[in-house]
Structure formats: structure tokens, C-alpha cells
Specification:
The protein is of the alpha+beta class. It has helices at about 1-35, 100-105, 105-110, 115-125, and strands at about 35-45, 50-55, 60-65, 75-80, 85-90, 95-100, 130-140, 140-150, 155-160, 165-170, 175-180.
Length: about 180
């Protein structure tokens, strides 16, 4: 009889723990859903074969969204990957520098000194060859979409620039061909 009572207590305690865990998971899911949309992106396949749209949230989440073709997206300034010079140090670590003369040939970039600073910052932080660098200016805010030429990954990251780079979101594939604030 004592065994049955202790077994019932154990089952009751276990049940309460499960209920608490489920409640916590639901609360965390609700908190995640409370993220605010900050940007809308037009995403093009790398080969140009298709276009999709995504909403980017302040927590880094990216969700596909409905077509926004009638909305005005800011087009990127593309940085030629050839402006980045790859070096290897004595320990075989890769680091990049910028051929500033080649960079300044792009009048769109050289017209805003922040683009030059930003491009140099990206090079300084990079440990891999850069396959794609797209620059966006939305109002007073600067954004960078960056893809490395490293391995089989087709992943690209979007950063915001305010004296330093802050990662906003990661895309599994494609490139951002237009960006706008929500």
C-alpha cells in the first residue's frame, strides 16, 4: 500500500514537472513571436533564376513573405570582390586588405566615405575570400550583405553598420537584391 502511495506522489510530481516544462516552452515561443519586423528584403537566386521576398525581424529571424513588387526597394551598390587582396601570415592564417585605388574607381562607393570605411572594416574582419559584398543605405542607416567564398555553404549574412558591424540576419541562399525598412 505504501508503495502505491509513493508511486502516486512520484507520478503527480512528474506530471507537474512536465506541465511546468510545457508552460515554459509555450512562454518562450510567445516571446519569440513578439519580435518586430525591421526590414523587408528582395532575394534573388545567385543565378538570377528567381526572386522571393522576406521579412527580417529584430531577433534575426527571416521569414518568407508575400510578393512586394509594388514597393520601392533600395538597390545595392555591388563591391567588386577583386578589390580585396588576400594574404597569408606565417601561421597560414588568411587576412584581407583593400586595394583602395581599385575601390575608388567605383564612383558610387568613393562618393560616400562611409562606404570606403565600411569596405575596409569588412576586409579587416574577414578570414576568408569574399565572394559578394553588397552595400545598402536606408535613410541614415548603412547595411552590408556579405557572402564568403568558403566551402560549400551558400549562406550570406546581413549586417548593420554604426561605427561597427552588427549581424542582423543570415540567409541560407540567394542574395539580397533590394532592401527597405518595414
Amino acid at each position: 500500500m505504501e508503495f502505491i502511495r509513493s508511486h502516486k506522489k512520484l507520478l503527480t510530481i512528474s506530471g507537474l514537472i512536465v506541465v511546468l516544462l510545457l508552460g515554459t516552452l509555450l512562454l518562450l515561443k510567445h516571446v519569440d513571436n513578439s519580435a518586430s519586423a525591421i526590414l523587408e528584403a528582395k532575394i534573388t537566386a545567385d543565378d538570377g533564376s528567381g526572386t522571393s521576398f522576406a521579412t527580417i525581424y529584430d531577433n534575426g529571424k527571416v521569414e518568407k513573405s508575400k510578393s512586394s513588387q509594388n514597393k520601392q526597394f533600395v538597390k545595392p551598390i555591388e563591391v567588386d570582390p577583386q578589390v580585396f587582396v588576400e594574404h597569408t601570415d606565417k601561421k597560414n592564417n588568411i587576412y584581407l586588405t583593400v586595394n583602395e585605388k581599385a575601390l575608388r574607381k567605383n564612383k558610387q562607393i568613393s562618393s560616400d566615405e562611409n562606404w570606403v570605411k565600411l569596405t575596409k572594416l569588412v576586409a579587416k574582419r574577414s578570414k576568408h575570400a569574399i565572394a559578394m559584398l553588397s552595400l545598402f543605405k536606408l535613410g541614415d542607416d548603412y547595411y552590408v550583405f556579405l557572402k564568403y567564398n568558403a566551402g560549400l555553404s551558400d549562406e550570406g549574412s546581413l549586417y548593420q553598420y554604426k561605427s561597427s558591424l552588427t549581424k542582423v540576419a543570415t540567409l541560407d541562399s540567394g542574395k539580397i537584391s533590394g532592401l527597405k525598412k518595414k
